[in-house]
Amino acid sequence: MTAVTTGTTTKAGAVRLRGVSKRYPGGTLALDGVDLSVQPGEFVCLVGASGCGKSTLLNLVAGLDAPTAGEIDVEGGRAAFMFQEPALFPWLKVGQNVEVPLKLRGVSRAERRAQALDLLATVRLRDVADKRPHELSGGMRQRVALARTLAQDAPVLLMDEPFAALDAMTRDALHDELERVWLERKLSVLFVTHNVREAVRLGDRIILLASRPGRVIQEFVVDQPRPRRLDDPSVAALAGEVTDRLKEEVRRHVS
Ligand SMILES: Nc1ncnc2c1ncn2[C@@H]1O[C@H](COP(=O)(O)OP(=O)(O)OP(=O)(O)O)[C@@H](O)[C@H]1O
């Protein structure tokens, strides 16, 4: 395990931000000169104190908002986005929910059903295709949301605290699930979390953002072999190191 303070990242990547700043109309400078990259096939976790601009950054990469300054490149020109809430359409069956992005991509009606079932099989939920979302547990709903996100067929996956609302056991299972899907599909992932252990469990790298304004202050390379467990001593040790750095940053703000 090594910790390096980042400077600019120059290599082309699946996601690349150069000098990205975001000032909201009210005047808040949410991000200030952020440089970061996600390499193809890499899993990068973004952590930082509340309000440091993590969601702002993901929204910019997703193209939901525009930066005030700087450049953002995303492989294939677009990324798929998954949120904390599964946000499934309650009036549609599970399979139909997964079909929505396929429809938007112009996949024919005949093809859609088969593709949706394949995607549900990827998250091991093929047999619930004809149920309604309310019939599923929270963890199952989030797996359906993952299948629906995969249906966007983008090489880059943006995840904004996707497991924050789940209990510890379910979250643990979802870590395994996501890791498997990421490796199978060779996705590039930018994953926001408040949970430092989760970041060490999943990430190839952890990028730490400072608050007000949001800037990259440190980067941690996680080189523990996979699959990792949340309670691995080496995971706990690195999580401790990241948390200490985070606390230092929070103290800097309150003092
Ligand atoms: N639409 C907006 N208009 C004005 N200010 C905003 C807007 N969205 C976010 N902000 C401000 O920008 C800063 C960064 O917010 P952002 O939600 O990106 O942080 P975050 O790190 O994701 O926070 P949290 O961890 O609490 O979700 C905060 O000071 C927030 O109040």
From TrEMBL:
It comes from the Bacteria. This is ABC transporter ATP-binding protein. InterPro entries: AAA+_ATPase, ABC_transporter-like_ATP-bd, ABC_transporter-like_CS, ABC_transporter_ATP-bind, P-loop_NTPase. Signal peptide: none annotated. PROSITE patterns: ABC_TRANSPORTER_1 (PS00211), ABC_TRANSPORTER_2 (PS50893). It comes from Cryptosporangium phraense. The lineage of its organism: Bacteria, Bacillati, Actinomycetota, Actinomycetes, Cryptosporangiales. PANTHER family: ALIPHATIC SULFONATES IMPORT ATP-BINDING PROTEIN SSUB, TAURINE IMPORT ATP-BINDING PROTEIN-RELATED. SMART domains: AAA (SM00382). Gene3D superfamilies: P-loop containing nucleotide triphosphate hydrolases.
